[in-house]
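Hi Y.,

Following your request, here is the sequence exactly as I used it, all 98 residues.
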Amino acid sequence: MRTYIGGHQVVSADDFVELALGTPLELWLGVEGETDEERAARLDAARDILADNPSLPDDVSRVAAEAIEEFAPELFNVTPLVSPAVRRRSPGCRGAAA
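Below is the corresponding structure, written out as tokens. Let me know if you'd prefer a different format.
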């Protein structure tokens, strides 16, 4: 079975990441053996992308957190946190008097 996202065939986990980011993964992580000039050019391009899309880090963090929560909690030993608004007090626990 083949997987396509927006007309692009996904053949690896890196493909999913690249399609989610909209940029090659190497742009953000670099590549082994890159020169100082290549690194500077890569970082300049990354800064330009972030300037055009300042919400990108938040969007990527949200997608990564959702993927971990949904697909791999056992791999990362993650315990979902309960929102403070959802927590219940234990029996006999009294709050401060109003």
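The first strand starts at residue 3 and ends at 5.

Thanks again,
Q.
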